[in-house]
Amino acid sequence: MMIDTHTHCGHADTNNGKYIPPHRSAWFDGVETKEQYIAAVRKNGIERIIIVDIPELAFPMREQFGDFVIPIPMINMNRATPEYLEELFTRGAAGIKFISPLKSYGNDSFMPLYEVVDSHRALAVFHTGYVSTGFYEPGCIKDVGGVVDVTDMRPMALDRIVRYFPNLKVQLAHMGNPWWEEAWCMITSHKNIYADFSGRPPARSLTMWADLFAPDGKLDEKAVSKLCFGSDAQYLWPGNHDPSRKYINFYERFYECLNLSQELRDKINFGNIQELLEHS
Length: 280
What we know:
By secondary structure, the chain is α/β, with parallel strands linked by helices. The protein has 10 helices and 11 strands. Strands 6-7-8-9-10 form a 5-stranded parallel beta sheet, with helices on both faces. It has a 4-stranded parallel beta sheet with strand order 5-4-1-11. Strands 2-3 form a two-stranded antiparallel ribbon.
């Protein structure tokens, strides 16, 4: 069983390589029922999914697909207020997804947002590392009001945040692509920071990951035990019942390469995220 901690469920039209509004749901009725879709996905090993899309997608999908969907809405953190985050938690958010700041994640101006998440004992999911073009620039579907600097999203930027909020629960998405060692440093230095291999990391050699998590063949259990399964795959497309297969295959190869115990595999596949969401 796996809980996919990093998924999306939307699409948009494109123009010269840029995704343009409106940003809309991938789900449409007619091909199959929602119950049939959930059963098919669960047959392929994914018990539940966390949607980290905008509130206009995450909450309606929760309403339609029930507890198969866990909503962690993505916000424009450059414009959001603490009051807005409180509204999202009132609507049932299990956490908040932070991405594309126009200042470093660790800037003082963002601390009131993190304080709200911390007060709810909820999960703060941070995109770390490179972000694709065509999504967040002015005029695109996730326009954040300026042109982002990906170095503002380096994993080390989270260090200052958890020094302010040592109990804040954090999921560091994409293992810091391409700042892998910074991500490793964060998950081994701070008790409440976890990470996933969603998106680009599975494209890297297993040899690299083995060197990072089992240097000289000695398993770094402290680091491995802070991982979560995540894909960055697009779910809720009718008929597409196995969108995270390449990520499942990667994680299983990673487990075999490091000869992980079943206990550690279970922690990564579902145990860690269940604990992180326990009080949210």
